[in-house]
Design a protein that fits this description.
Order of helices and strands: EHHEEEEEHEEEEEEHH
Strand content: 15-25%
Number of helices: 5
Structural class: alpha+beta
Mean pLDDT: 88
Largest sheet: 5 strands, antiparallel
Low-confidence stretches: 233-238
Shape: elongated
Oligomer: single chain
Length: about 240
């Protein structure tokens, strides 16, 4: 379930026994102003807690054969590890490299190899060598947790209208807002935190599902990968 920014604030006020506002961002009431400010804070804080599946996006880098560094998306919050692939060569791009690994790669006698490698530098994806004219893809978590009410295609990380849609689960963000409001007022928020933690654990445990874990000593993958096909197409490792 999702709701508007105003509806979330109204629900939180009703549960806390505070006056329920008829409108939000244009209000001169200090409690309403504080609640909307805290709601913005809550939404941006939750971005970094996990890879929320509804915020995961694909990004393509179309390399031009000249540059080795390319900007990340404007709504980038965090990268999904081990999802960056070279579509042209059908192989993973290794990384991100640490400063020590990057220095070793750039300064040793042989600095190239079959796999492209990358690091994050200055908010750019930088490759260890020119990838040529190719397409590099990866997944990332967007910071656009606010859906614009009159244009669902536009997302941002700040509320601009009372009717903007908050993409987090409605009851979860309500409970977090209640907790943060009581904490900001210097009141005992222990019970509110317990409410929030219980729902958070339940929701995040179901947000993306989970694979079946194999406890056998050896697991063979069903797909052909770089783990069972050697570089150079010499055949499948038995």
């Amino acid at each position: 379930m999702r709701g508007t920014a105003l509806k979330i604030v109204q629900q939180a006020c009703g549960e806390l026994g505070l006056p329920v506002p008829a409108y939000g961002l244009a209000s001169q009431d200090q409690t309403t102003i504080q609640l909307f400010a805290l709601l913005n804070s809550c939404g941006n804080e939750m971005l970094n807690w996990m890879d929320w599946q509804f915020l995961i996006k694909d990004h393509e880098i179309t390399t031009n054969g000249t540059d080795v560094a390319y900007p990340r998306p404007s709504d980038f919050n965090s990268q999904i590890n081990q999802t960056i692939w070279d579509k042209g060569m059908r192989r993973p791009v290794r990384g991100p490299l640490s400063p020590q690994q990057w220095s070793a790669i750039k300064n040793r006698i042989v600095s190239v190899g079959p796999f492209i490698m990358y690091r994050i530098n200055g908010d750019m994806v930088e490759f260890n060598r020119n990838p040529g004219a190719d397409t590099i893809v990866y997944q990332y978590v967007s910071n656009g947790w606010v859906e614009q009410y009159d244009n669902p295609a536009i997302h941002s990380q700040m509320i601009a209208n009372d009717n903007d849609i908050i993409t987090y689960e409605f009851w979860l963000i309500v409970k977090m807002l209640k907790m943060r409001m009581w904490e900001a007022k210097g009141l005992d928020a222990t019970a509110l935190k317990k409410e929030f933690d219980t729902l958070y654990d339940a929701i995040t445990g179901q947000d993306q599902g989970a694979p079946i874990l194999n406890m056998s000593p050896r697991v063979r993958g069903a797909l052909i990968t770089s783990n069972n096909v050697p570089d150079g197409n010499y055949g499948i490792i038995p």
